[in-house]
Amino acid sequence: MSGTKLYEGKAKILFTTDDPNILLSRYKDDATAFNALKKGTIANKGEMNCAIASHIFQYLETQGIATHFIKQISPNEMQVAAVKILAIEVVVRNIAAGSICKRLGIAQGQPLKHPLVEFFYKNDDLGDPLITDAHVAMLDLATPEEVAQLKQLALDINKHLQAFFDRCNLILVDFKVEIGVNASGKLLLADEISPDTCRLWDKTINDPKDRIMDKDRFRQDLGNIAEAYQEVMKRVLAT
Ligand code: TMP
Questions:
Q1: Burial readout 224-236 (b: 16 or more C-beta within 10 A, e: otherwise)
Q2: H/E element holding 31?
Q3: pLDDT single digits (tens) 97-128
Q4: Residue 2: pLDDT band by 50, 70, 90 thresholds?
């Protein structure tokens, strides 16, 4: 049973439950891009992303990554641990795509020598700007110890996700994670892992548009959006 609405984001709604340590996360079909300048829906996305994220959270738990996931309770709802979400979006990149290409003039598809961890300030009014460790400290977004842990956690998650998606015949180009702090001060992977938050390219397709299996199909109006999510879900659930 869901309680009161705590927070409504662009892709999910968080509700309280009878247990103050547990929240209910309901995944929506709504899709936005470019800080909600572009809005739409993707048929069945809530259920697809909930199934994908549930499976991936459980996989990451088996690999020793602590997550907020407790259990999936309906096709588009999961119970998660109540945490304080850090106002930092942590992005890990293996191949250059999206904003880094515009920002630094790197060619789309250029493999990076090492995985790159970037921090963005989670602030819609400011358009989630890129920030450095110094800004994190200045804005008091996390302690220096948490920053060091965040970077290591992001790289560990990347290693496990890369291996997982490789088995799905998908290349993990980049992804964004949000991290929560629980009552004991422990960092937990929170939010979601899905084609909304990852760039995934089909390993067997070379065409730079046809290979896109994630929200870039929506951002760039490439068509077959729900079909791509469906295919990712099929492969993830079989892996
Ligand atoms: P970017 O190239 O636009 O910075 O995106 C990097 C990764 O982060 C990409 O996998 C998409 C994901 N992402 C989100 O999950 N939410 C966002 O608001 C943005 C801008 C990107």
A1: ebbebbbbbbebb
A2: strand 30-33
A3: 999 999 999 999 999 999 999 999 999 999 99
A4: low
Pocket perturbation via mutation, ligand 1, pick of 117, 119, 197 by most ligand atoms within 8 A of CB: 197
> Which domains are delineated in the chain?
5-81 (3.30.200.20), 84-224 (3.30.470.20)
Q: What is the pLDDT of residue 115?
A: 98
Q: How far does the centroid of ligand 1 lie from the alpha carbon of residue 197, in Å? A: 6
Q: Which atom of ligand 1 is nearest to the CA of 196?
A: 15
Angle at 179 between CA 174 and CA 182, to 5 degrees: 160
- Cβ-Cβ contacts under 8 Å for 152 (sequence gap 6 or more): none
Per DSSP, the three-state class of 188 is: strand
Of ligand 1's listed atoms, the one at least distance from the Cα of 97 is 2
Q: How far is CA 42 from CA 34, 157, 196, in A?
A: 16, 27, 11
Extract the tokens encoding 78. 């999961």
What distance in Å separates the CA atoms of residue 164 and residue 170, rounded to the nearest whole number? Answer: 9
Angle, nearest 10°, between helix axes 225-237 and 45-62? 30
- Cα–Cα dist 13/15, whole Å: 7
